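Changelog note: in this version the structure field was regenerated for every chain. One regenerated record is shown below for reference.
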Amino acid sequence: MASHIVGYPRMGPKRELKFALESFWDGKSSAEDLEKVAADLRVSIWKQMADAGIKYIPSNTFAYYDQVLDTTAMLGAVPPRYNWSGDEIGFDTYFSMARGNASVPAMEMTKWFDTNYHFIVPELGPDVKFSYASHKAVNEYKEAKAIGVDTIPVLIGPVTYLLLSKPAKGVEKAFPILSLLDKILPIYKEVISELKAAGASWIQFDEPTLVMDLESHQFEAFTKAYAELESTLSGLEVLVETYFADIPGDAFKTLTSLKGVTAFGFDLVRGTKTLDLIKSGYPSGKYLFAGVVDGRNIWANDLDASLITLKSLEGIVGTDKLVVSTSCSLLHTAVDLVNEPKLDTEIKSWLAFAAQKVVEVNALAKALTGQKDEAFFSANAAAQASRKCSPRVTNEAVQKAAAALKGSDHRRATDVSTRLDAQQKKLNLPILPTTTIGSFPQTIELRRVRREYKAKKVSEEEYVKSIKEEIKKVVELQEELDIDVLVHGEPERNDMVEYFGEQLSGFAFTANGWVQSYGSRCVKPPIIYGDVSRPKPMTVFWSTAAQSMTKRPMKGMLTGPVTILNWSFVRNDQPRFETCYQIALAIKDEVEDLEKAGITVIQIDEAALREGLPLRKAEHAFYLDWAVHSFRITNVGVQDTTQIHTHMCYSNFNDIIQSIIDMDADVITIENSRSDEKLLSVFREGVKYGAGIGPGVYDIHSPRIPSTEEIADRINKMLAVLETNILWVNPDCGLKTRKYAEVKPALQNMVAACKLLRTQLASSK
């Protein structure tokens, strides 16, 4: 029985790639230094999987930014603004596409399906001249082979690549992207031919768009693509991998009929209904890569249950054609539990990070061949039982409070226009009020203070003094810049979700459980293992301290329940919405305490609400109902004069705009600039929005500083579709990842643009 891993985390157990990338971007190290760190990590990963007994080990899953951008580089699909010379794509062009540079902005970034991972969206059109411009897939295969590891090279499938793309600027929105299939397939053929020549016997195409709602012409594109590739693929075993959801029946039929394909991979964790399709008719002689080990969460696999599933599949496809696999890439999990010596022993026994999941996959494969490790399976069964009956998981009071929520939709008593009038009388803000999203740059000194406080190297008194000094600097800077509604900069927080999770019951934390979000950006998701409640106030002290430093409104900054849920590793023993309602009640307590403490503007970020939208339309309504309801629960009890803000970023919001309106926030700030202002199109199409709204005027994920004129132009585009009295002016997102040398001039230009337009609007009356 063979074993397979779809993909593996690439940052390294100690975030080695993150630090190497940032050092390179800052000009402190060379391209050779970066390449060496990356090569060492790749070799380590391949050897680890080989030593664990994995037969089918992936290569070309290691990206310096993301795998879709790698494919864009492979196809030479570089937008003209980057002045690419046409040679093999190097770091300058690659990172300019990802991050922008001093003269041109980055490409759009959005979420990878329903995960917190991001990818750079390809910009395509009829005039793109595709060419084989990055030999990374072949080079990595050869690199692994040189150390004695024969890998499966992994490519984003041609149809998924096109379906994830968008028309380039100036190209009609209705441009049929799939019409480019004939132009990219010759490059795929070149790559396949080179891999065959290098000795590859397998190749993996990731086609996760097959789990989505597709139309007939899109299914036809899959059939056409693999028919065209069939002769080139001859002599190879070909795996088409799907993940993240059940595969629909029509997609299953299309997939299993593809010419030249000898193996199919399915997510059997999130796609349990796919089992019925397999049992009702699986093509004879084809390999089945059964994704029974969860690649999206950190709970130990129920090995006994997985073994039952695998044995039933073995009876369908045969022992020699069944391969035990992960449900998707392990990119979405933390790296290794070995790096967590301080994690609670009982909770640790319930978990499996990427390294442990590799072991689980191999243990299941061996068990199917009669080599079951009885001690390993016994320990796993004991851990499963421990988790089910542990008293630390259940809080009866919390469950009763959540159950009592049924029967109310939790709406504020008055409509938003009435509330905005009351708030304006209290806040007295100018037209086009300016604000920022929350965080300010996290300096080396600030990180040192937090680190030393956690290590008990400085006293609480010293820590509070340092954080207050940092808040004072941020407040004074905003007043100097003449920003209207201030933030305290969040200097006490390393991560917006981790910070709240540390103060809520039912959460556990890791020391090194980092997961890549995009580029060098890593997050450390909390683990929600039990019922959630708030033992005491979490932000009131810092918010009131910040408000005491200024007469301008100071936002209280909270993370919303849906975002805490979607950016955590969530318990899998109860429905996600039940956990979300528990978090909502905890945030509600905090909102009401902030209001009592005199905070009149409270932001409840829901950056990840769109991210959690199921991949299939039939499941949207149920998710949006409980997600939006959870947000409303948090602020249903506040006064009309308390202004509730929310923030969303880096997703496509147009298809859920009615649900965003239904959240009933007083003001929403929302990412807009990096996505070519496509958010504004929904208002051009006639959607009426009566609450305050701040579409971002510049991209904070790029070091580029926008000019006053550029920002003014963006605001004018907003004024063409939005009423002056509801428009706010703000960046796309928080400023944590930027340097003050970038933040200060960018905000200066933002405020200057705002003042220019205020003057123009006043003179036009």
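Spot check on this record: The mean pLDDT is 95. The first strand starts at residue 2 and ends at 3.
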